[in-house]
Amino acid sequence: MRGAVRALMAGGAALLLIAVWAVAASGVLLVSAPAALALPPTQVVVEDTAGALYRPQLDPALARISFYEPTKVVVFTRAGAAADNLNEEVLRYARANHPEWISPDGQKWADGLFIFALDTTGRHVGTYFGEDRKVSLDEQQAIQDDTKDLFRAAQWTDGTIAGVKSAASRIGRPWYLSPAAMIGGGIAGVAVLGGAGAWAGVRAWRRRKFAEALSSGDRSYSSVTLALDTTELNASTIPASSSYGGLVLERWEGFRARHREATRLRDRLTLMTPRERSRSASAKEARKYEELAQTLDGLDDAIADTNAILNRGSSWRSAWQRQTQDLTGELDGVDAMLAAKTTAGTPESARALESGVGLARAEIERLGAGLEDGSLTPEAALDGLKAQRERIGALLGAHAEAVIDEHAKNQKERDLMRGKLEASTRSWRSTHRTQGSILDVAYPQLPVISIVSFNSGIAAGYSAVDSARSSSSTGYGSSGGSFSGSGSSSSF
Questions:
Q1: Higher pLDDT residue, 20 or 72?
Q2: CA-CA distance, 429 to 22, in Å (whole number)?
Q3: What is the residue-averaged pLDDT of the chain?
Q4: Higher per-residue pLDDT: 434 or 173
Q5: Cα–Cα dist 483/486, whole Å
Q6: What is the mean pLDDT of residues 36-54?
Q7: Each residue of 245-265: pLDDT tens digit?
Q8: Range in 244-258, 355-369, 470-484 the model is least confident about
Q9: Residue 167: is its pLDDT beyond 80?
Q10: Helix then strand then coil, % of the chain, to nearest 5
Q11: Which residues, in sequence order, are CB contacts of 275 under 8 Å at separation 6+?
Q12: How does DSSP classify residue 67?
């Protein structure tokens, strides 16, 4: 045993020595590298056809920017349209007004040149380079990204200065000043140690997720097991002739078998060793147990409330309140959702949703009163509640389309935003698994009414679209011909 410990300590010391050597070696390389030059632009040309730039601020700022290599800077602005191809428009302008920006063979941008282009109304930014000044597409994207917050705020001059500064920090940059070289030594020094640490971290994370799922599942499982006899009694007195009673009883048919399955899963998970709990498959199995136990927990609550409402038992009022409280709670969140800029939609869709919320509140009150005075049967009251779920779902869906149309510029972006909203809805449905709702047990495909899920899905849609817009376009369009100069553009 002591020999094994000494071997392990010796191995750890060796790893540490390797890491220190790697860091030291990289430091020697950086120290011995030559100093980089700092050169002002050889010439600055500003073609502000959009009339967007404040020259008293722009000109001295550009003159003070330092490049690693002698570089001519061109700033070109225009006021175009969102559908325009900025690459094509820059090339078209250069051919017509500044042929000197193009190489003698007409196929590339001129050597020593950097063009920064801005379309203020089309909301595009572009960067273009002579062959001896070009940078990678990732670096071009980084330059463009450095301007977008300013451009989104219509700070055209500040954004242009930021873009040229970002380009100057990349064009002709010596290899030893690249981020990869600066941190490479550190990475090399810790890679050996970090690899083992990362794997240990993954295993610890899996054990934690396993424990969380097992604990959550146990809470639901205990609740179901303790109430099992009561649930069976409730199910036995639900009238099968009732439209809702029959649908809920269909779910009850497999309740016992699914409870036995949950028991088997729990027994196997509980006996697992820490090593077994570190496996990916074990974490998935624990999650399966959690989901099964939560579904059963929601179902036994729905069975209890179905029995109380259909038979008008002593607890029917509290059971009805539980059936309506989720919908009324979501209705309470509509005003805040409509007040937010990103989810405001159009005035028409907002008014329709607001009106629908008011009508739904009044209808839920009417349904409760009808149950109270006996003018409505329990089935009719549940039908009315179902109709409100469907109507609010339709209004929320129409509002979602309005929100999407307000932000999306084309069908591809609309589909992307719809996909994110649908994913958020599926996630909400999977994590709430009936929660004692008679309607969800009887009609699992009823529309999800969740303002939190709606807001989350729309936010994810915005993020996905904005990310897609930021991706660079490198083509020069149909008029570009065989031109293949280095450069790209993206939207902001």
A1: 72
A2: 51
A3: 87
A4: 173
A5: 10
A6: 90
A7: 999 999 898 888 999 999 999
A8: 470-484
A9: yes
A10: 70, 10, 25
A11: none
A12: B
State the alpha helices, DSSP H only, in 136-254.
Answer: 137-152, 156-168, 179-226, 228-236, 243-252
- Which residues partner with 487 through β-bridges? 128
Spatial contact of 11 and 39, defined as CB atoms under 8 Å apart: no
3-class state of residue 333 by DSSP: coil
Q: Which carries the bigger pLDDT value, residue 473 or residue 160? A: 160
Q: pLDDT tier at 489 (50, 70, 90 boundaries)?
A: very high
CB 56 within 8 A of CB 78: no
| Longest CA span, the chain | 92
The pLDDT tens digits of the residues spanning 298-321 come to: 899 999 999 999 999 999 999 999
Residue 180: count of CB within 10 angstroms of its CB: 9
Q: Cα 391 from chain centroid?
A: 28
Q: Whole-prediction pTM value?
A: 0.59
470 Cβ contact partners less than 8 Å away, ≥ 6 residues apart: 141, 144, 145, 148, 490, 491, 492
Q: How far apart are CA 147 and CA 128, in angstroms?
A: 15
Instruction: Return the CA Rg of the chain.
Output: 32
Instruction: Select from 249, 288, 167, 220 the least CA-distant residue to 442.
Output: 249
Residue 43, strand partner residues: 72
What is the residue type of 320? Answer: W
Q: What are phi and psi of 169, to 5 degrees?
A: -75, -10
Is the pLDDT score of 25 beyond 50? no
261 C-beta neighbours (distance < 10 Å), count: 15
DSSP readout, 13-30? HHHHHHHHHHHHHHHHHH
Are 242 and 232 a contacting pair, CB within 8 Å?
Answer: no
Backbone dihedral region for residue 298 (phi beyond 0: left; psi -120 to 50: alpha; all else: beta): alpha
The pLDDT value recorded for residue 211 is 94
Model confidence at 185: pLDDT above 80? no
User: Which residues have a Cβ under 8 Å from the Cβ of 123 and sit 6 or more positions away?
Assistant: 82, 151, 491, 492
What phi, psi does 126 have (nearest 5°)?
-135, 155
Angle of CA points 268, 274, 277, to nearest 5°: 55
CA dihedral 472, 474, 476, 482 (to 10 degrees): 180
Per-residue model confidence (pLDDT) at position 475: 84
User: 102 with 74: CB under 8 angstroms?
Assistant: no
